[in-house]
């Protein structure tokens, strides 16, 4: 951390520091521009001009009141030429005080980490006196400029940054500081600032005073001292990097291992920012004095000291792939990174075969991607475990806000839960596509999905394996491995034959799936899960209709029950597979087999349908040889009835619908607590007299499997299996607490002399950061709800998140 003092007076030192920072900035800007196309190069130079000026006809114009002007910025003749070439008017420089202190890129721009897929992360450091309305206008202007740049395939993410954001306690609920898809909120403050200092490029405005011992000056931007970072922030930052790893695990792995290296060192260890500045002071402006290079060097030193060759090898591959330089490609241009990267690869001892495999990453198939993703996830979780132990041994806590902690862990749980019924979307990483022309299903102990490169390919490469045929089929459809043109094959004895019914089913499934990434709001993650879409697949593994000899026309004419057909009362439904999508963005697959499959499936979906606040998309597809339409319509009718009656359950009564399946008669009972079914065949009661298909309202009977009946109705609506829930009501100095565990087992107690916020914070941090963890990492943090009586009615609301934030995408 110690940097040798520069000789001379204080003014001389400051002058030299400015000169060094300016020279390094010029080098970085030139490197960033060298990796851009000529047009994008001009657009990068144009960004400051669009924020400096504000006039009708310019991109970003959103009315006359948006703040404009950048400190000490003047539009150059070259920028004016670019504006003219794009058909844009020549702007006038604004009058009055500038609203923006400076505009800076940060992250991979101008470093080894910049590649042709990289976007721009741009910080707009605004004047500290801008009010909420002015900030909103500036945010809208930034969004419009970002949309305009996207027309030219230049993706830029703009962030409004308060100049005292890292040194003062500001309003964390401010829209531009709230946690979201691209903003870490309070999860990492100082570590984010440290990354900004070592990687930023000043496009316009004040020089960033990022050197050790820097002091404030009118023409300098000093955002804070990175040496005052709190050790407890490592945990929040690690959670944030795991979350970012859901989209870009190769980048997140580098950062989370760096956090681990930082946490393992001494309190006065040299930060990467210090190392980079030290080399700059020594006159090192080479490719080696690069933010990404020194990041890799620190990780390599740490893992080498541990003797962890496996992680080091994966880190090297991630670093190489992040650079996007393909050393074996003939068409690869030789830029400023080429020779440095080649010397690094030679030192690692990589052979030509490995390099060619990595350089072909855009053509990796799903099996290769799945393997690489699993390695990345495993190593990221391992680093997080190390940081948890570090926190426990030093009794560290986190200053993260409760709502941010809850949303991060909830989102991580949807990915790292390890639930065997969950289908996790494949991260394509660098691959341009994973669609296969031929797929083969092999059934051994599990169902194996194999890619066939040629006709008659008897070996192929394994892509995925699942417990059910539906899991394999759904995974292939969800991840784009199967398309409408994909041919499917199955083993029949010693022969490999086309399965055209499976191909047809795949073609029917694909249009029903969401085409784009599922949007999840903060409110979604704070509330219990519910269904957005449910798809029933019928008779996928067993099909009794193949042995049925009747006439389908007569079934339609007589309106016969396909669940109890003919004199033998044969059930034509042997199995139900449920593919569901919930508001947390999760895909689940569930399998039910046998005569009671439909009953079990309806019971499973009822709570998720009941909790839904929007219309659920319901579909049924049959894989049967015969009676396809009849089975699909029958089950769809039950599914729609299930959705309707689940929403209309009353506290005092139960809605009952009889159903004949095979030779047995059952009753479906809908109430406020959900759905249960009973065998009515041997019951000497009113139920035997009910006409088939009618729904009746009955006095609420004592039914089994209703553990929630004693809870307040408001809590019954929110009760969700699979997550622990706390329902809290402040009663003077005491706290009334209802707890439902992951199996919906109840607990009720009164906590004396307690306050909601303090209790929620204690339980949350103990759950995530406590040393006493069960084996494995858990992200399934409890949900907390505030109970309040409004106009005599007990109401529920998620604890700790502002209402204006609820609908924001996370």
TrEMBL record:
Name the Pfam families for this protein: Adenyl_cycl_N, Adenylate_cycl
Q: What Enzyme Commission number(s) appear in the record?
A: 4.6.1.1
Does this entry carry the keyword Transferase?
A: no
EC main class here is lyase
UniProt keyword list: Lyase
Identify the residues that the record assigns to the Adenylate cyclase class-I N-terminal domain, covering every copy.
14-211
- Keyword set includes Transferase: no
On the tree of life, the source organism's domain of life is: Bacteria
Recall the GO molecular function terms of this protein's record. adenylate cyclase activity
Give the protein's recorded name. Answer: Class I adenylate cyclase
């Amino acid at each position: 951390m110690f940097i040798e003092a520069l000789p001379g007076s204080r003014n001389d030192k400051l002058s030299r520091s400015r000169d060094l920072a300016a020279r390094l900035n010029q080098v970085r800007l030139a490197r960033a521009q060298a990796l851009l196309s000529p047009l994008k190069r001009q657009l990068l130079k144009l960004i400051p001009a669009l924020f400096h000026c504000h006039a009708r006809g310019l991109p970003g114009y959103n009315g006359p009141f948006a703040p404009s002007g950048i400190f000490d910025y003047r539009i150059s003749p070259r920028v004016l030429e670019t504006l003219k070439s794009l058909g844009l008017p020549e702007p006038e420089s604004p009058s009055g005080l500038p609203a923006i202190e400076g505009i800076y890129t940060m992250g991979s721009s101008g470093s080894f980490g910049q590649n042709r897929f990289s976007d721009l992360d741009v910080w707009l450091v605004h004047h500290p006196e801008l009010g909420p309305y002015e900030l909103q206008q500036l945010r809208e202007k930034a969004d419009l400029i970002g949309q305009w740049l996207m027309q030219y395939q230049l993706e830029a993410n703009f962030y409004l940054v308060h100049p005292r954001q890292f040194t003062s306690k500001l309003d964390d609920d401010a829209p531009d500081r709230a946690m979201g898809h691209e903003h870490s909120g309070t999860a990492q403050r100082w570590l984010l600032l440290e990354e900004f200092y070592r990687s930023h490029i000043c496009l316009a405005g004040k020089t960033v005073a990022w050197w050790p011992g820097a002091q404030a000056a009118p023409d300098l931007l000093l955002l804070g001292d990175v040496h005052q970072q709190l050790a407890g922030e490592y945990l929040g930052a690690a959670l944030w990097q795991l979350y970012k790893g859901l989209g870009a695990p190769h980048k997140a792995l580098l950062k989370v291992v760096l956090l681990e290296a930082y946490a393992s060192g001494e309190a006065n260890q040299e930060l990467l920012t210090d190392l980079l500045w030290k080399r700059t002071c020594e006159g090192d402006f080479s490719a080696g004095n690069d933010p990404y290079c020194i990041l890799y060097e620190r990780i390599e030193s740490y893992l080498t000291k541990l003797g962890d060759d496996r992680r080091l090898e994966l880190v090297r591959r991630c670093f190489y792939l992040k650079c996007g330089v393909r050393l074996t490609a003939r068409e690869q241009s030789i830029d400023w990174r080429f020779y440095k990267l080649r010397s690094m690869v030679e030192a690692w001892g990589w052979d030509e075969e490995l390099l060619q495999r990595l350089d072909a990453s855009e053509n990796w198939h799903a099996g290769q991607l799945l393997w690489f993703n699993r390695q990345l996830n495993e190593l990221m979780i391992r680093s997080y475990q190390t940081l948890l132990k570090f926190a426990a041994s030093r009794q560290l806590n986190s200053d993260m806000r409760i709502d941010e902690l809850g949303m991060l862990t909830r989102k991580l749980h949807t990915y790292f839960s390890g639930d065997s019924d969950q289908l996790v979307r494949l991260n394509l990483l660098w691959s341009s596509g994973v669609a296969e022309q031929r797929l083969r299903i092999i059934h051994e102990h599990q169902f194996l999905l194999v890619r066939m490169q040629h006709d008659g390919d008897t070996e192929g490469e394994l892509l995925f394996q699942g417990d059910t045929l539906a899991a394999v089929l759904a995974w292939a459809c969800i991840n784009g491995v199967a398309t409408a043109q994909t041919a499917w094959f199955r083993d029949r004895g010693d022969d490999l034959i086309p399965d055209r019914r499976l191909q047809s089913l795949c073609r029917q499934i694909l249009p029903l799936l969401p085409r784009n990434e599922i949007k999840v709001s903060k409110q979604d993650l704070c509330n219990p899960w519910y269904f957005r879409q449910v798809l029933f697949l019928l008779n996928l593994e067993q099909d009794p209709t193949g042995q049925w000899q009747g006439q389908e026309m007569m079934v339609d004419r007589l309106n016969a029950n396909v669940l109890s057909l003919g004199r033998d009362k044969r059930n034509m439904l042997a199995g139900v597979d449920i593919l569901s999508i919930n508001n947390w963005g999760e895909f689940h697959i569930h399998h039910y087999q046998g005569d009671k499959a439909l009953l079990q499936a309806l019971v499973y979906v009822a709570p998720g349908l009941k909790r839904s606040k929007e219309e659920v998309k319901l579909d049924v597809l049959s894989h049967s040889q015969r009676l396809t339409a009849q089975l699909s319509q029958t089950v769809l009718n039950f599914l729609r009835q299930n959705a309707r009656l689940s929403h209309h359950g009353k506290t005092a009564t139960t809605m009952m619908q009889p159903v004949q399946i095979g030779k047995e008669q059952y009753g479906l009972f809908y109430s406020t607590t959900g759905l249960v079914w009973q065998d009515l065949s041997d019951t000497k009661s009113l139920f035997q007299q009910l006409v088939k298909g009618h729904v009746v309202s009955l006095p609420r009977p004592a039914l089994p499997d209703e553990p929630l009946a004693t809870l307040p109705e408001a809590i019954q609506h929110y009760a969700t299996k699979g997550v622990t829930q706390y329902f809290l009501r402040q009663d003077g100095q005491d706290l009334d607490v209802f707890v439902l565990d992951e199996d919906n087992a109840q607990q009720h107690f009164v906590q004396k002399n307690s306050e909601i916020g303090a209790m929620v914070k204690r339980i949350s941090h103990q759950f995530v950061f406590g040393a006493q963890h069960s084996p494995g990492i858990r992200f399934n943090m409890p949900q907390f709800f505030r109970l309040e009586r409004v106009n005599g009615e007990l109401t529920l609301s998620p604890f700790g998140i502002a209402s204006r934030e609820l609908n924001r995408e996370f």
